[in-house]
Specification:
The chain is mainly beta and 718 residues long. The chain is built from nine helices and 40 strands. The chain has a domain of 106 residues.
């Protein structure tokens, strides 16, 4: 232990005791010490050999004298420490060897500036201060690495590990920070009025050239600068001219060759961001975010040369390229007419609320695209390579052919939200094309739609070739007018890949699938329906317009992979399938029926329940017993868990007398009832008096519930 050079100790947050540092006094070779969440620093001053000390998250009370004794200290880390406004900082002046200083993120008093002047070896600094405390003519020393917050202690997300990080609000103190600008990599400003540009471009005071500053920048964020008109401007500015840009100088002298991320937010008077010549230098730009810039017309514009030269430059295929751009997000820019003057392909595209955009102003192809409150026709070219597409509050009546005539066959994930005018995904009856699309959504795997007031069907007219043939997940939420999910010829397409179906709050929905379409659901695993007030049956042909089929089906409806069936709050649901149909679901393990006031005859499932392990029933009618009124005994052989809630008319679980008379296994009376059941719950069943009902005089040698382990009966008469 006496040879120990590096030590780290952390106190648990819920520890209420006191840990003494006295024992550390014997560590004569200790060079680096990390103490976290400590309160008692007695004897710390005895560790005179320390060169590195970190007290992160600790409470600094009466610590100044102890720290002032550590004359060889080269690094002091007080990040996230709790300090009072009266905490003395002058002790740091005695640490003449200090090279790295990390102070708490709470505004320091003006004493800190006097301290910094004495630290002649300082190369790294982490500091949060108010510009009101700057002494006259104060300048930060030239630092190798720094993170300084001025008038702002709420951090944005900056570039991790940036050499120079400045976050400034309200006033840009150029004189104080001028020597820091040479290695500035992350600059974030908010609520700046006039000083920002003039301080950065004032040649009479410039200690670091503007071109050097901009060449090093990796992140720029401008927030709530209400007077800003231009981000980069070419012309020189008269001395008394009002602020209209962040950097004002000829753009041929400005290059942002290191810029990775640019964020512009709430600059309502901004007209444009880049000239074409400046945009050409953005070879490393990865993310561009622009929001709430009401007067922004163009992101890239060219102000140099005459109109013919400008037009030629903009139309050149090689004039502009952001090779690293992965994310472009434009939000609520009401005046935006153009995004880029030529075609670009960011990986992610988000455009929200830009009503003036047209197809002549959008030249983008994006693998992931989110478009809200805009004209969908403006993005026809953008969807060529789209795989993930999110549309919200669009005014179009269909996606094919209005958004894309070729059928959006590359899209694998489609999310539609609050598109009140959308009537269908594909309209093959439209006259927009001669014969309609030959195929549509052939690679779509996930379809999520919510709050679509006008949607009548997924496809209007004859479905095109390959329509939804690869669809795996279907989610429909809040469709007040939807009556049929699929309407058309029953053999026109299949859902051979569908695995999960979730339907919520579709008030006029009559049924889900036709009996012919269900034959293609060979991979369906989960089916969940909730709050569909008009739903009468899960499977019926649309041609019957709601009339439930009564004809006998010679072939069973086979769902080989279905393992979960959940039906809730479907007040008119009477049959899962029309009468005389047989459903086979050999993989069904969990079934839940809740709040279906008409009561579903479970006998309609017939063989569907044969392999069910977990059965949950709630609010399912006025029947007196489960067996045999609702289901036959042999269909519950595999049941291990049964939960019944709010069974208004239920009197018993099994009526033995009827079971003995009516049901036999291989022409023999049953010898065991519910032989695999382990868990039984009966709750809020006021008339429930017996688990098994047996008439007087009838004897049975059958075993009842031989494997039952857990029983819960509540609010019943048992």
């Amino acid at each position: 232990m006496r040879e120990l050079k590096v030590l780290s100790l952390t106190v648990a947050y819920d520890y209420t005791g006191v840990i003494s540092l006295y024992a550390l006094s014997s560590l004569k070779k200790l060079r680096a010490l990390h103490l976290e969440n400590f309160e008692d620093f007695s004897f710390l001053g005895n560790l005179r050999t320390l060169e590195i000390l970190s007290l992160r998250g600790s409470k600094l009370n009466s610590l100044a004298d102890e720290l002032g004794s550590l004359k060889d200290l080269k690094m002091l880390d007080l990040t996230d420490c709790v300090v009072s406004s009266s905490f003395p900082l002058n002790f740091i002046r005695r640490l003449s060897q200090l090279e790295k200083l990390y102070l708490p993120k709470s505004n320091m008093t003006n004493d800190i500036f006097l301290v910094i002047k004495f630290l002649t070896r300082l190369t790294r600094l982490y500091l949060c201060v108010s510009s009101l405390h700057f002494p006259p003519n104060f300048e930060f020393p030239e630092l190798e690495k720094y993170k300084i917050y001025i008038n702002n202690n709420t951090s944005f997300n900056g570039i991790f590990g940036a050499t120079g990080y400045l976050e400034i609000a309200e006033v840009f103190p150029y004189n104080a920070v001028s020597q820091l600008l040479g290695n500035l990599e992350s600059l974030q400003v908010k609520r700046i009025k006039d000083e920002c540009v003039k301080c950065l471009t004032n040649k009479t005071q410039q200690k670091v050239s503007v071109s050097t500053i901009l060449q090093n920048l990796k992140l720029v964020r401008i927030d709530d600068c209400r007077n800003l008109k231009v981000v980069f401007q070419m012309d020189e500015v008269e001395e008394n001219e009002d602020l209209s840009s962040i950097w004002e100088l000829p753009t041929q002298h400005v290059r942002l060759v290191s810029l990775v991320e640019l964020i512009i937010d709430q600059c309502p008077r901004l007209k444009s961001l880049f000239s074409l010549s400046l945009a050409q230098s953005l070879v490393l730009l990865e993310e561009l975010h622009i929001s709430f810039c009401d007067e922004l017309k163009q992101i890239v514009t060219e102000l140099e040369g005459d109109e013919e030269e400008i037009s030629s430059a903009i139309n050149s295929r090689t004039s502009l390229c952001f090779p690293k751009l992965t994310q472009l997000c434009v939000t609520r820019c009401d005046g935006l007419e153009y995004i880029f003057p030529m075609s670009l392909s960011p990986q992610g595209l988000q455009v929200y609320g830009c009503p003036l955009l047209t197809d002549s102003g959008v030249h983008l192809e994006a693998e992931r695209a989110a478009v809200w409150d805009v004209r969908l026709s403006a993005f026809k070219d953008s969807f060529k390579t789209s795989k993930q597409l999110q549309l919200k509050s669009i005014e179009d009546h269909n996606l094919v052919p209005e958004a894309k005539e070729d059928g959006l066959n590359g899209v694998t994930s489609l999310e539609l939200l609050n598109c009140k005018d959308l009537e269908c995904l594909v309209d093959t009856t439209t006259t927009a094309t001669k014969n309609g699309p030959t195929s549509a959504f052939t690679h779509l795997e996930t379809l999520y739609m919510e709050k679509m007031d006008g949607l009548e069907a997924l496809c209007k007219g004859q479905p095109p070739q390959g329509f939804l043939k690869n669809l795996k997940h279907l989610n429909l939420i809040r469709f007040p007018e939807l009556r049929w999910i699929f309407k058309g010829s029953p053999h026109s397409f299949t859902l051979q890949s569908l695995k999960v179906v979730k339907i919520y709050e579709c008030g006029k929905l009559k049924s889900l699938f036709s009996s012919s379409l269900i034959q293609s659901l060979v991979l369906l695993e989960q089916l969940k329906i909730e709050c569909c007030d008009e739903l009468e049956t899960l499977f019926a042909d649309p041609e019957n317009d709601g009339e439930i089929e009564s004809k006998h089906s010679s072939l069973p409806l086979h769902l080989p992979k279905l393992n979960t069936l959940c039906i809730k709050k479907c007040s008119k649901l009477e049959y899962v399938v029309p009468q005389n149909y047989i459903v086979k679901a050999p993989s069904l393990k969990r079934m839940k029926v809740k709040d279906c006031s008409k009561g579903i005859g479970l006998s309609a499932f017939k063989e569907l329940l044969c392999n069910t392990n977990d059965l949950i029933l709630k609010d399912f009618g006025d029947h007196k017993n489960l067996v045999p009124d609702l289901v036959e005994m042999e269909h519950l052989d595999g049941l291990t868990s049964l939960s019944i809630n709010n069974w208004r008319g239920g009197e018993c679980l099994v009526d033995i007398s009827q079971a003995m008379m009516d049901f036999k296994y291989n022409d023999q009376s049953p010898k065991c009832f519910l032989q695999n059941l382990k868990i039984l719950r009966v709750v809020d069943c006021g008339n429930f008096s017996k688990i098994f009902q047996m008439d007087d005089g009838i004897e049975s040698n059958a075993h009842y519930l031989p494997n039952l382990e857990i029983v819960k009966i509540k609010d019943a008469r048992v």
